[in-house]
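Subject: design request, 146 residues
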């Protein structure tokens, strides 16, 4: 009788543990493989993406962003001056998209040519290169990637 109770308790604990693990895993598992498949599908296309900047929120940003492999290059770049400008890869041009995006580092408003490494970043997962003032929480401009 004692063996049956111990075995039943172990089975219940195992079932509870597996169901607790499988719920989040199935939630993330169901969304991650889809994202993973789409990321893999877009990675070859991400080998070369580019876009032209346009100013947003009454700010001026100009130039082009080009992604080749693991490098993003800005050409002919200029921006209104900001106290803390950074470059982001995002899926939109609002604050929520910037927060959810990936920062590439500080960007100089007056350097026409700049290069950023995309170590470990799948550029094909993103739709925009965004110039953002982190201190003012303001999007200065964006380049849609295609």
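Subject: RE: design request

Done. Sequence follows.
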């Amino acid at each position: 009788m004692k063996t049956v109770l111990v075995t039943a308790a172990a089975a219940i604990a195992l079932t509870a543990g597996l169901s607790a693990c499988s719920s989040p895993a199935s939630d993330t598992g169901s969304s991650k493989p889809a994202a993973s498949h789409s990321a893999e599908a877009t990675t070859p296309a991400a080998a070369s993406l580019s876009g032209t900047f346009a100013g947003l929120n009454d700010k001026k940003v100009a130039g082009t962003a080009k992604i080749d492999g693991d490098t993003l290059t800005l050409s002919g770049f200029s921006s209104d001056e900001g106290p803390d400008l950074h470059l982001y890869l995002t899926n939109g041009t609002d604050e929520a998209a910037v927060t959810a995006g990936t920062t590439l580092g500080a960007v100089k408003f007056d350097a026409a040519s700049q290069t950023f490494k995309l170590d470990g970043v799948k550029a094909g997962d993103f739709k925009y290169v965004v110039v953002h003032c982190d201190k003012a929480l303001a999007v200065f401009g964006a380049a849609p990637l295609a």
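DSSP finds two helices and nine strands in the chain.
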